[in-house]
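Problem: given the chain below (258 residues), write out its structure.
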Amino acid sequence: MKIGKKITLMCLSFFYLYNTVIQMEVFADEKVKPEWVPEISAETSFETKYIWRGQTLVDNAVIQPGASLGFNGFKFSVWGNYDAGLLDRLTEWDYTFDYTLNVGTVKDELNVDIGIPEIFDPMEISLGYILYTFPNLSGNAFDSQEIYAGFSYTAFGLTPMVKYYCDFDSGSGSYWEFGGSYFAELAKDINAGISTVAGYNAGQWGYDRSFSNLLFSGDIAVTVLKYFVLSPNVNYSLALDKQYSSEFYGGIKVSIEY
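Solution.
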């Protein structure tokens, strides 16, 4: 990819985010977001590699745009990957439909005693569907579909989780994730997060059944202009089987959240 084209792509990505900020300034002076306004986010990540479930999908710099729209536990999101190196093209678009139920939120909305103890309030259960598409790729890169279910519980900043994915299309197999995360406020508008996730591949995409990797991640989120967030990150994917390779990568995510 010529340098000029790369610069143009980066400028367009930042313009897209900046324009989103301007559009949302109509709400900037609101002390409380109106209930009818959905949760809106848009992002662009610049990463040194693209690692997915222990697999090195792109071994050079990538640009990863995304956006989501959520309301009352339902969320639709789109996410893409642009190979800024060898292939010089968009390689993936993913579309996700998710519903997440938070026990405490449901109890508050119902405003009645349904007999569930408060200790269960931080519990979240998620169900969803993902459509993976691979434009501009050939060979074994076929579109695929997954359904998933997840469970998490947050207490004292810690969030243990487990998630199960079932691929019923080209990827034909399933995948498990077990892990946890911790988030802390370092200062006003500055938050830090660390997480560790272990993956188990149960035959998806032709891999032998095994634990795939142990992913260590850390990021710092700095909020500016109220809705504009800069998040540098570092990650280390430790291979747990000879089918995978250990990788260190990082980058920065620029996002708008409202």
